[in-house]
Structure formats: C-alpha cells, structure tokens
Amino acid sequence: MTAAGPPREYLDWSENGVSTSALWRSANGAPAPKRVVPVDDTITADAAYRLASQGVALLWTGDFQNARQILTALEHRTRPRPDKTQRTTAELFYRYRQNRSHRARILSLLLVPLEIGNIIGLRRAPDVVAATVDAYGSIAEASVVSLHEVLGTIGAHQWRTKGIRVAALNASIYPHYGTFFPVRSEYVDLVATAPLAAPRVAFDIGTGTGVLAAVLATRGVPRVIATDLEPRAVASARETVSRLGISGRIEVQLTDLFPEGRADLIVCNPPWIPATAHSLLDAAVYDPGSRMLKGFLAGVIDHLEPNGEVWLVLSDFAELVGLRTRADLMTVIDTAGLRVIGALEAAAVHSRATDTSDPLHAVRQSEVTSLWRLRTK
C-alpha cells in the first residue's frame, strides 16, 4: 500500500468577476495562504507590503520582471533595522530568528501561476521547466506557487547543474533540490582525516547528499550503509555514489535513523541547532528538541559492534547562542552509555564567518565544528 501524501489544497480568488481556483504547491511544505487577491504592475511596493503584512497573498498577473522588482522591494522592507542596543548573544539569535521568520512569511506571499508543463504564464517569464521539475515534478494541473520559492528552485538547479566541488573526494557532487548542500567543508574534512581503524561495515546516519558515506568508501571502508528519512535525500545520495562509481560499496536506505544490523563505525552529522524548523529546507539545520541527536545517541549502542566507534559531528553554534551547553551534550552522551575517547576540531572557514554585516558575525567567527569519537563505557 502506498502511503498517502499531504492533502491537496486549492486557492480560490475572484478576477474580473470570475471565480477561479488552482492547486497550491510548495516544495518547502509551506501552508496555503488563506486569502488571495490578484495584482498586476499597477500595485506599488508599499501597497504590496501592507497587504502581505496582513497575511494577504498577492497573485501576480502582470509582467514577470516587474514581479521580481516588487519582490526585491519587499526584501528591502523586511531587512532588520540597525540596532545599537547592547544585547546578549541569546537575544541576538532570538531577534535573528524572528526576523528570518517574518521575512520568509512576507516574501512567500507574492505568488505566480505555474501552468501545465511547468510554464509560468506571465509576460517575460523565464524558462523554469528544468528547475521546477526538480522541485515539484511535472505539472499536470494549473497551480500557484510562491515566486520567492520558484527563484530558489532556479538557484538550486544552477548549483545542481554546476556541481559542488568536494576537496575530500577530489570530485564534484550534484545535490537534488531539498537536500543540504555541502558548501561548508569543515565537517567533511573532519570525517576525511579522523583516525580510521579498518572497519568492515560503517553506517552514515542522516546521509543527505551521501557525501560522508562517499568519503568513508573512498577511505577504504568496504561496505557503507547510508540512511535518510527524506526521499529527496535518498535519491540525491544514490546519484552521488553512482556518479562517483562506488555504488557497489554503498547502499542507501530510506529509513529513520538506523538500518538493520550492526556496524564497526557509525557516523552521524545531525542538524546542529535545537530550534524549530520553519520549512522542510530548515530541517537540515534545525533539530527541534534535539530529536535526531538524542534519538541517534539513545539507539546507537544497539547497532554498534563490540569495540566499535561512533563519530558524532557537531558544531558548537547552539552552545554559543545559549540553546545548549557543553554539559548538556556530555550528559546525553553519558546517558547513552558512551564515553568520549577523543575529538577533532575545525574552525569556521565558510563565507558567513567573515560577513561583518551579519548580526551573528561574532558567533559564526567563533564557531568550532567537532568530530567526537565515542565508544561504549
């Protein structure tokens, strides 16, 4: 029996006295707006912002390039204002998340039609067929989507077409839409350099694009089982190992956390921030209540061979913004029946660590990613 998908939602509006409806689509799991009004090139940015601030979605019927200009204007209006108040790091992070949530909500409310064949039915609209097929599949019914999300699919498709170079693999990978892009090298390099004691079987839990599983295989692990609960990630990981020519050494499974059996080495790079995810894309970064981290540590012993080793890859970002303490992490590890036998650390080298305009610049500059080596007590 095939599992039921999410319920189909339709948007209804009136245009020139005619009632119209279309299927709501969101590759990021955004809920359908409650109220929709058609707008065109005559609307001003201030009027668009006022309506969006009231939760009213704006279905664009005019020129596509003008819609992009309105979206840019909305982006300007949702930028955080300069704040000279002395705030704690925790307060800065809270304000940052508030602004991100407000910004995402406002920008999501400018809508465009996506017609059968993945065509945006507006003047001067670009060809978005390949990008939107990646995100939504082939469109066989008149639909409405967020313009901001569509532009995101275009950017993701460009990354997918170009590929992301992974130095540890001496190769590029081509992530699918909706998977976490490994543009940060710290955690990959840690897995590529940690001491490896010739494991026969390794598990990569929450594999995403499959990059860590691929690193393990290229380091000589004869069998790697990679898991993820997101179908798009599983498809992306399978393509990664196929492109690299290592499918015979890596099996990718759709499952929550652990596969059946045991392994000599179990690797996990869970989402690093124990806070609520605002979209499906956020789920790669945000782990509400540390669900995945705690679930992984609580169950890992049952899947670990005697004298096996666990590699937990985790940033201290959550500690720096006051969402978790180092003592909290050590308690979870200890409660799981594990002990720390060593740790490798990598300082932040990604671009956001040098962006002084970021309100969390000091945090990102201080961030350290660790590979914790764990064994049973």
TrEMBL record:
Annotated GO MF terms: nucleic acid binding; protein-glutamine N-methyltransferase activity
Domain of life: Bacteria
Keywords: Methyltransferase, Transferase
Membrane-spanning intervals of the chain: none
GO annotation terms (biological process): methylation
Domain Methyltransferase small: 198-318
Protein name per UniProt: Class I SAM-dependent methyltransferase
